[in-house]
Amino acid sequence: MKLNRKLPEGPRYALIDTKNTNGISSEGYGLLLEANRALRARNGYLVLHSFNKTIENKLRITKLNTIFTIFNTREEALEFLAEESENPFARF
């Protein structure tokens, strides 16, 4: 499945709440990576927040935590996106 067909051309940011997620399959990680790549190409971000400890540990072990933009809470994620939308040239 190609995610680019699912993402409209316009958005530069996507916020994903993982609070109620118990696990992510390899296909799920692949879709997240593809979405991240598509949004980065538009100078945007895929922002993930509220991971449980199991998923957080898997992201750390696989070093995917260095690829994704991750926050502990929804509030932190929204604050980051608000700052980014005010300064479209900001990159970290």
User: How many strands, which pairing sense, and closed or not: the largest β-sheet?
Assistant: 3 strands, parallel
Which CATH architecture?
2-Layer Sandwich
Q: What oligomeric assembly is this protein in?
A: single chain
Distance N to C terminus: 30 Å
Give a description of the structure.
Strand 1 (13-17), helix 1 and strand 2 form a beta-alpha-beta unit. The chain has helices at residues 26-41, 53-61, 74-86; strands spanning 13-17, 45-49, 69-71. The chain contains 3 helices and 3 strands; from the N terminus they run βαβαβα. The protein has one domain (12-86): STAS domain (Transcription Regulator spoIIAA, 2-Layer Sandwich), CATH 3.30.750. The model has no long low-confidence stretch (mean pLDDT 85).
Using brief descriptors, characterize the structure shown.
92 residues; 3 strands; 3 helices; alpha/beta; Transcription Regulator spoIIAA
Topology, please?
Elements: E1 13-17, H1 26-41, E2 45-49, H2 53-61, E3 69-71, H3 74-86
Report a brief summary of the structure.
The protein has 92 residues and is of the alpha/beta class. It has helices spanning 26-41, 53-61, 74-86; strands at 13-17, 45-49, 69-71.
